[in-house]
Amino acid sequence: MEFTLLDKLIFIGYAILIIGIGLWVSRGKGKSSEDYFLASKSLPWWAIGASLIAANISAEQFIGMSGSGFAIGLAIASYEWMAAITLLIVGKYFLPIFIEKKLYTIPQFVEVRYGRNLKTILAVFWVCLFIFVNLTSVLYLGATALDTILGVGDGSIFMYAIFGLALFAAAYSLYGGLSAVAWTDVVQVILLIVGGLITTYMALTHISDDGGIISGLVKVYNEVPEKFSMVLEKGKVITPDGKDAWWDLPGLAVLIGGMWVANLYYWGFNQYIIQRTLAAKSLKESQKGIMLAGFIKLLIPLIVVIPGIVAYVMNMDPSGQITQSHADPSFFSKTGRIINDNASPWLIKEFVPSGLKGLVVAALAAAIVSSVASMLNSTATIFTMDIYKPYFQKKPSEKGLVRVGRISAFLALVIAIILAPQLASLGQVFQYIQEYTGIVSPGILAVFMLGLFWKKTTNNAAIWGILASIPIAFYFKVGPNGWSESLFFLNLPFMHQMMITWILVMLIMVVLSYIEGKGKDYDKAIIIKKSLFKTDPVFNIGGFIICLILVMLYALFW
């Protein structure tokens, strides 16, 4: 189905609306660093909840997670469903401490708890991670999707799409800061949910024998029941390229293992996620926003995973395999490699009708642009407040800080534009993001968890722990590359790698802290009172309902 004039008008209308809102809400703001980086600490709960989801749901999920749904199945939804519980933990136990300390950035907590040297190390880590992994992957996936939907999938509009998405995000976020990002996210998240549900509806009704959604879902389940397993065993699900899916999602690790390392790091200590919670009117307002985001996370797999499974069923041959003789050609590269991440773009291109297609493409663009804008703002915040301000200009003006923030965000975007095309050789980009984030996340999580909840953790122990985490993580990366035959190397799923790395780093930090501090509390230890963790009935009831729904979902799809 072609992208008609009506589709183009709908998309252009969406772009004008978002840029207009972004510039309007940021009028008169940006005069101080608090205005620009923390939206004047004025965000209500519903804006925080919407902004959390908009920042999180991007091409990684719309395209990457749909691709993993195509390759693996519903099991990939554990990243979303377990995130709902993680959000509750962050809201109850982490956020009260962060807001009490009046933080701008997560690295600032590190300075308060440990010292400036470690803060700088982590600030540099995060800036590099945002630019070289997050920004580049989001731009690559988004451009690939638009090339498939709007072009012919041959890369003819790939670079134009990268530039277009980058400039779209920059048009309002560089000027308006977090205010522009957060308030446009309210519109973006509504659009991406509606657009995602349209794609799911069209896919399920097309495959259904009677045109119904439920019957379509039942048919897909009957065709590939193994792809609806949430806890995988070895050999249960083989991806189209012949890989055992257990290596990506190793059994109970999604419930009691390495998934917690990934989720606690991402939702608790990731600047571009936590920044909007720090901009709340109050702690209670922020916690209600987190609870709203938890409920929305329960819905996300229906939007981003189910379409991938439907695309698999539509393209598999009678034996249940994806072959070039049976599947759509867009699922294969010129070298014959299977392109799992084309699942969602292919569905949109083939089955969403004109008029609605413009809305769905706008939803996809909303997911990409909102995340790019959030990452740019957070990269600028960390660089400006944690690197530039303390080291390059001790007493900068507020306008000077905002100017540096805009310049650093612009340069980060330029680097990402240059690097994004280099990701073309990857199969499942969502898994790439998880694996390479997993190199740094265990060490960072260890530093924060011990820093928050163990008073004896010292600054030197934290520095050595974070530095040791990198070689430990890379040790596990060597095994799969032909070294696992040696007695000295192991070949483990990356979730196990993250969990073991996290435990080893914490052990290193505990031993060094005892040696250095001789068992005494560190002088910068966080003093925690039980009253700090009290939450109101609305949060408690909402959290209980989320947990109950999750128990039912895992019991149903175990």
For the record, what is the CATH homologous superfamily label of the largest domain?
Answer: Sodium/glucose cotransporter
- Unreliable stretches: none
Number of domains: 2
Secondary structure category: mainly alpha
CATH topology of the largest domain: Sodium/glucose cotransporter
Radius of gyration: 23 Å
The CATH C-level class name of the largest domain: Mainly Alpha
Distance between the termini: 38 Å
Q: What order do the helices and strands follow?
A: HHHHHHHHHHHHHHHHHHHHH
What percent of the residues sit in helical stretches (DSSP H or I)? 55-70%
How much is the average pLDDT?
83
Name the shape in a single word: globular
Number of strands: 0
Strand content: under 5%
Q: So how many helices?
A: 21
Notes on the structure:
The protein is mostly helical and 558 residues long. It has two domains: 36-421, Sodium/glucose cotransporter, CATH 1.20.1730; 432-527, no CATH class. The chain is 70% helix and 0% strand. The longest helix has 50 residues, at 158-207. It starts with a helix and ends with a helix.
